[in-house]
Inverse folding.
C-alpha cells in the first residue's frame, strides 16, 4: 500500500489530502474491514484519514521477519 501525502494547509491541520493506491486484493480486504464497521470502503478510508477511526498494526521485529526467533 502506498500513501502519498500532499501538503497540509496550516489553517486546517486535521484535514489530510492523501492519495491511496491499492492492489485489488487490498481493496477487497478494506471492503471486508469496512463491513465490520458497517461502512462503505470510501467512508472507512475517509474516517481513517480524519482520525475518527484508529487502526493499530504491530510490525514484526527484524528477527521475526528473518525467521530468527
Amino acid at each position: 500500500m502506498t500513501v502519498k501525502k500532499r501538503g497540509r494547509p496550516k489553517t486546517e491541520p486535521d484535514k489530510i489530502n492523501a492519495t491511496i493506491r491499492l492492489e485489488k486484493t487490498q481493496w477487497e480486504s478494506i471492503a471486508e474491514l469496512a463491513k465490520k464497521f458497517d461502512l462503505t470502503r470510501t467512508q472507512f478510508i475517509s474516517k481513517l484519514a480524519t482520525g475518527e477511526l484508529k487502526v493499530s498494526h504491530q510490525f514484526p521485529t527484524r528477527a521475526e521477519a528473518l525467521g530468527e526467533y
Summary: The mean pLDDT is 70. The radius of gyration is 15 Å.
